[in-house]
């Protein structure tokens, strides 16, 4: 079924923390720099110093609004699409609203949280709202701080992640820009392949059975990759069903920067290497912010042009797969 929505990304922004962490940083944990590059494909990443999810998100949002030629007061919905919350309650969306100076505005805010797929789900929700006429100018922000929840005793995961924020403004399209189709799938059998067990009702902080490690990120990357391989064909077939043309007509692929092996596996989907945009080597895996941050780089580097067909694709804890195809 064709699901074309006449909406466009009218502005995009990104915020990078100033603190650059090279692979040499991890020597204090007896992790060799060359091993990190071979294992994860990451040379450097950014870690926060004084920044918060809200402050980074607001900085990215202001750049996106400026490019869209909108004052932040003209927004009529704010979507926080992030996997790392600033605090348990409230969700990050009203904190972001306040950081933007809109605390008295009454502009509605909401959070879409599907870990690494949060941005894609947020963009999907925004495009549906715009297409229905419910809202006209929606801000979607992914602001991620991974560095505070890493297990420094797990070399594979603690060297993979970075912090940053990215944002887009979504509006009605009066040109060729559109969301061509979207597709999402979740396989709960993989729910515990990627997780932080703590910080919820299963492992509350004051429970005697809760350990420090329960609040740290844990991942079985091999099992995740195996599950993605298992469902790859059916997922692509269902994504293809929403298009009037072939998946081969894609101009650019902007994937979630999950890992070196994940990006290597993406080549098996059939897209040429030169069409796939990478930021893993210098930004690491930045959870939900990876896709919009990589899209930002593709646009700012003048690779992605208006009218190009772009595939945004990734996986998230759950285990979930997601894709949005848009004509930028």
TrEMBL record:
InterPro entries named in the record: ACP_syn_III_C, ACP_syn_III_N, Thiolase-like
Domain named Beta-ketoacyl-[acyl-carrier-protein] synthase III C-terminal: residues: 247-328
Origin: domain of life: Bacteria
Domain Beta-ketoacyl-[acyl-carrier-protein] synthase III N-terminal span(s) in chain numbering: 112-188
Gene Ontology molecular-function annotations: 3-oxoacyl-[acyl-carrier-protein] synthase activity
The entry's keywords: Acyltransferase, Transferase
GO biological process terms, semicolon-separated: fatty acid biosynthetic process; secondary metabolite biosynthetic process
Xref: SUPFAM superfamilies: Thiolase-like
Protein name: 3-oxoacyl-ACP synthase
